[in-house]
C-alpha cells in the first residue's frame, strides 16, 4: 500500500484561493496578463466554476465563482480586500500594461524601488489587488538600509 502524502507533491504549502464573480473571465485574464496555465477546472451544472487551479511559474492559485448560498463571495461583496498578491515577472512593464489594457485599475504606478525591484500595483476587474515586480538590482543589506533611511528622510 502506498503512503498518502499529507502535502501533495505538486502543491506548495500556501496557496491563495480567490473567489470571483465570473471565474471563467478571471481565468482568461490571469492567463492573458500573468501567463497563467490552467491546471484544473470543475464546472457546475449552472455554468459556474466550482474549483479551478492555475499555475504561474512555480506557484499555484486556486479560484472559484461566488456561491452566495455557501457564503463564498469575492472582494466586491465586502467593498474590497485588505489582501494582495505579489508576483515576480520577467517584464513588469509589459505585464502591467497588459493588465491595464485588459481592464485592471492602476493602484500604484510602476517605479524603481530602493530595495532593487521595479514594481507597480493594480486591482483586477474582480477586486483582487496585485503587486507586479521584476527584480532589477541586487542590493546589499547595508545599502538597502542606507537607501531606506534616505527615503524616510525625504518623506519627512
From TrEMBL:
InterPro entries (alphabetical): Glyas_Bleomycin-R_OHBP_Dase, Glyas_Fos-R_dOase_dom, VOC_core
Which domain of life, per UniProt? Bacteria
Stretches assigned to the VOC domain: 10-135
What is the protein's name according to its record?
VOC family protein
The opening ranks of the lineage are:
Bacteria, Bacillati, Actinomycetota, Actinomycetes, Glycomycetales
Amino acid at each position: 500500500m502506498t503512503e498518502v502524502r499529507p502535502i501533495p507533491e505538486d502543491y506548495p504549502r500556501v496557496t491563495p484561493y480567490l473567489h470571483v464573480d465570473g471565474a471563467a473571465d478571471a481565468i482568461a485574464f490571469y492567463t492573458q496578463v500573468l501567463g497563467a496555465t490552467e491546471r484544473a477546472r470543475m464546472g457546475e451544472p449552472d455554468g459556474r466554476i466550482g474549483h479551478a487551479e492555475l499555475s504561474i511559474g512555480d506557484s499555484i492559485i486556486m479560484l472559484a465563482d461566488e456561491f452566495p448560498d455557501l457564503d463564498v463571495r469575492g472582494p466586491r461583496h465586502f467593498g474590497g480586500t485588505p489582501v494582495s498578491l505579489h508576483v515576480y515577472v520577467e517584464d513588469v512593464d509589459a505585464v502591467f500594461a497588459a493588465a491595464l489594457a485588459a481592464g485592471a485599475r492602476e493602484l500604484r504606478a510602476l517605479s524603481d524601488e530602493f530595495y532593487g525591484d521595479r514594481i507597480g500595483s493594480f486591482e483586477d476587474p474582480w477586486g483582487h489587488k496585485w503587486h507586479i515586480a521584476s527584480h532589477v538590482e541586487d542590493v546589499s543589506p547595508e545599502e538597502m538600509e542606507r537607501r531606506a533611511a534616505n527615503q524616510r528622510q525625504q518623506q519627512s
